[in-house]
Specification:
Length: 873
């Protein structure tokens, strides 16, 4: 498929030119991307050093510009085109600013689609993947992206994934990789476990229609929770990251401070540890609620058949709600166990319930229920008639408390308890009431004091919980990195053993029948499974799970710094030169998965002494989506724009320049083919003008001519604007339109240029700078025009034009003149005019004279540089 692309170009549609221009032109030449682009592509492909970075010890300032690596599906989509056009413009600009730029590309090449394709078409995953990579690399080259292909990283090849295995061994050694039985998300479509981050709305991230099931499996985990606090705190320092991404990560980590408190089970030895964020309300606890799978629930169930049946029902309800991600909205059910627990703060016995909305794997799987001060507890207590006990009130006393608004009390309530509208949730300005020795304390202060008290007395402790869970990395699939562990029945029947580092890589076997979808395909290959025990040398079994593909993308960008290294994942000095990444560019959909995992991985590598940086990327940019007809592109909607189509009609330059022009890069872009055609016409115009005046521009010497100044002013204003946009918010849409304004001004002066009213020096400066300004956006075009102008060397390695502030300054200002607040005209005055001069110019304007004729001027208001307003009667 991609091989045909080059030959498609050159059809009649490729020659875009304004029909009138050939006749007007002295040297009739037409802009033909079908000729220019393949010509320069061949030149660039042949020059391996063109886009290669200088060595890390070159002494130059570095700039690491990175776009997220794609999954090799086989074809670039238009969203890729935009993503890479942003990064490529930036990389080229930074080269021209004199930086040593690293601009690499690679392939996130493991994963399920390769296996699915194999099932469908019978092509082995490796073959399918590598041919897709070849096709997409060609497309990228055809687009003119300036990548250093000598550092290309392909994650499915052993020279890369052996380092995944090496990292895994290091993490195992440090206790950061471990195995445990747990409830896991299982996608019946993928036939594999998914990470929590890969379950979206209870469904598989790859299969929108497939509800994820929960299964109990023994799995490998990476201890990301060890870094939870650092991952959270680090977000405050990532000022170059979008706030929305930082917020998403904060929520995902979900830190909450609270306390553990032990409630002893009355008439038994067991205790129930509850987690609460509001230990200050503990005097208001009127029950303890357990998850159906809590050990104490299970123990009670063993003694009571009727209770067991009810608990199983609750568990089933929970499971159904979890699988459809409706846990938040679950209809709350519970059952009283007939048993009681003792509140350690006041010695009171409270009933123990089992409830379907309490999760065994969140907090401790047990809560104290304080219905007067918690929405959820309130709802549950109302349903089952549990007592409410108010223990907090607004600071400043009980004066508002006796209004009978929504009075809620139960028979058990002591008459002395003040009631009001419940549940009452405030904490900052609230104080405790009816809370023993704590009565009168401010809630926030009491939280700290009471947790400390529990700790001192030995029945609790202040604690912190996280929503973030350890990262489950086991996958029961073929196309991934084999986990480098073995099991020996003889010397270590329970615990897995790490293979020796010298045995890496543990190769993924190539000829594998993956048509059976049950369990790991590797388990059916004896040559793979049978291994030697690293301890006793006897027969052992290899781990047959493979690693989650997010392992691959967690550190790939370090490999770019030293892609050929066969002794280490990368050289530390090289990484320390290039990191952190100066600018990372990709989709916001990676805010949680990839961008948390890769931050974690960097911290692990730092602790292994491999790098110095705490974070992988100093700045992150998330580009908007490309949409069509108001909707996300999809095959089913029939609104997919093919980059190949665009290239064959308009060329790669017009396609990528349009992707930058049509909207600011952080916003969604509505793709309109007419817009691409418009960019193509603009390039045709520049082509015609440049070829027409190139002989003038090539001439040396610069005799200033009177006309020069206005055009040079416009040029330097344009340079200032485009440079500013690169330094700032990347509003390339406005950069490109300012270049268009410059070109319009050249067109307006075309006759004067023909007549020799501009000096050759000025013409040369205008055209050379114009082409340099276009180089980051339309590289093929710029290379061709640079050659046309007789420019020396490679256009992208030429110094970016510098602003001459003197020349850029406006020497005339345009001042709007109003009469009684209505705009009448605009007058031109010298830029440094004082108030009197501006006023005089306004009063001398014929339109103003006509408007005020026969009237009296009451007042003249002059806002210097901005406005004149005449008040007349
Ligand atoms: Zn799935
Ligand atoms: Zn052994």
């Amino acid at each position: 498929m991609p091989e045909t692309r080059m030959s498609e170009i050159g059809g009649e549609t490729a020659n875009i030119v304004e029909s009138s221009t050939a006749a007007e032109s002295n040297q009739p030449q037409r802009y033909s991307p079908a000729e220019i682009e393949p010509k320069w592509q061949a030149v660039w492909d042949a020059d391996k050093t063109l886009y290669a970075a200088d060595a890390h010890d070159s002494g130059k300032p570095k700039y690491y510009c990175l776009e997220m690596l794609p999954y090799p599906s086989g074809a670039l989509h238009i969203g890729h085109v935009r993503n890479y056009a942003i990064g490529d413009a930036l990389a080229r600009h930074m080269w021209m600013r004199g930086y040593n730029v690293l601009h690499p590309m690679g392939w996130d090449a493991f994963g399920l689609p390769a296996e699915n394709a194999a099932l469908k078409n019978g092509v082995p995953p490796r073959e399918w993947t590598l041919s897709n990579i070849a096709a997409m690399r060609k497309q990228m080259q055809r687009m003119g992206y300036g990548y250093d292909w000598s550092t290309e990283v392909t994650t499915c090849l052993p020279d890369y994934y052996r380092w995944n295995q090496w990292f895994f061994l290091k993490m195992f050694e440090k206790g950061l990789a471990y195995r445990k039985k747990s409830k896991v998300n299982w996608c019946p479509e993928c036939c594999t476990v998914l990470a929590n981050e890969q379950v979206i709305g209870g469904r598989c991230w790859r299969h929108e229609d497939t509800v994820v099931e929960l299964r109990d499996l023994t799995q490998w985990f990476l201890r990301i929770t060890k870094y939870a606090d650092e991952l959270l705190d680090g977000l405050d320092k990532l000022e170059g990251w979008p706030e929305k991404v930082r917020t998403m990560q904060r929520n995902w980590i979900g830190r909450s401070e609270g306390a553990h408190v032990d409630f002893a089970v009355a008439d038994g030895d067991a205790k129930i540890t509850v987690f609460t964020t509001r230990v200050d309300t503990i005097f208001g606890a009127t029950s303890v609620q357990l998850a159906p799978e809590h050990a104490v629930s299970k123990a009670f169930a063993l003694e009571d058949d009727a209770l067991r049946v009810q608990i199983e029902e609750l568990l089933e309800q929970q499971k159904v709600a979890r699988e459809s991600d409706a846990l938040g909205a679950i209809e709350k059910h519970g059952v009283f166990t007939g048993r009681f627990a003792v509140n350690p703060f006041n010695g009171e016995r409270v009933p123990i319930w089992v409830a379907n909305y309490i999760l065994a794997d969140y907090g401790t799987g047990a809560i104290m229920s304080v219905p007067a001060h918690d929405e959820r507890d309130f709802e549950f207590a109302q349903k089952y008639g549990l007592p409410l006990r108010r223990v907090i009130a607004p600071a400043g006393g009980r004066k508002d408390q006796n209004q009978n608004t929504g009075i809620l009390r139960s028979a058990q309530d002591d008459d002395s308890i003040v009631v009001g509208e419940l549940p009452y949730l405030a904490e900052d300005e609230a104080v405790l009431i009816d809370s023993g020795e704590w009565t009168g304390e401010n809630c926030l202060e009491a939280q700290e004091k009471m947790a400390a008290f529990a700790k001192a007395k030995g029945f609790g402790t202040p604690t912190v919980t996280y929503r973030l869970k350890d990262w489950g990395v086991s996958r029961q699939r073929y196309w991934g990195t084999p986990i480098p562990m073995v099991y020996c029945d003889k010397c270590s029947p329970e615990e897995p053993l790490p293979v020796a580092e010298s045995e890496l890589p543990i190769l993924l076997p190539e000829q594998v029948d993956i048509t059976q979808t049950n369990g790991s395909p590797l388990g059916r290959i004896p040559e793979f499974v049978n291994a030697k025990c690293p301890k006793c040398g006897g027969a052992a079994r290899r781990e047959t799970d493979t690693m989650d593909t997010f392992v691959d993308s967690s550190w790939y960008f370090y490999r770019y710094a030293d892609a050929k290294n066969s002794n280490a994942p990368f050289d530390t000095d090289k990484a320390n030169y290039w990191f952190p990444i100066d600018q990372y560019i990709g989709g916001v959909e990676h805010a949680i998965l990839h961008l948390i995992y890769s931050r974690f991985w960097t911290k692990v590598m730092r602790d292994l002494g491999l790098v110095k940086n705490d974070e992988p990327a100093a700045r992150l940019f998330t580009q908007g989506m490309v949409i069509k007809d108001g909707a996300k592109m999809s095959k089913s909607k029939g609104n997919v724009v093919s980059p190949d189509d665009m290239i064959s009609r308009y060329g790669a330059d017009a396609t990528r320049m349009y992707a930058l022009f049509a909207a600011p890069p952080d916003r969604d872009l509505e793709w309109q083919e007419e817009g691409v055609a418009g960019i193509s016409r603009f390039l045709s115009k520049v082509y015609r003008l440049t070829t027409k005046f190139s002989s003038v521009a090539r001439a040396k010497g610069s005799n200033a001519a009177p006309k020069d100044q206005a055009l040079l002013r416009r040029l330097h204003q344009t340079i200032a604007k485009v440079t500013h946009d690169f330094d700032g918010r990347w509003h390339f849409n406005t950069s490109i339109s300012s270049i268009m304004i410059l070109v319009n001004e050249i067109t307006a002066n075309e006759a004067a240029m023909d007549a020799g009213e501009f000096s050759p020096g000025a013409v040369a400066e205008v055209f050379r700078s114009l082409i340099l300004l276009l180089a980051p956006f339309a590289p093929f075009f710029a290379a061709e025009m640079w050659e046309e102008l007789g420019g020396e060397g490679v256009v992208f390695r030429t110094q970016w034009p510098l602003v001459n502030e003197e020349l850029a300054r406006e020497d005339e200002a345009e001042i709007p003149v109003q009469v009684n607040g209505k705009l009448v005209t605009v007058v031109k005055v010298p830029a440094d005019s004082d108030e009197a001069a501006v006023k005089a110019a306004a009063l001398a304007d014929p339109k103003v004279i006509a408007r005020i004729e026969g009237k009296t001027i009451v007042k003249v208001i002059v806002v210097p540089g901005k406005l004149v307003n005449l008040v007349v009667k």
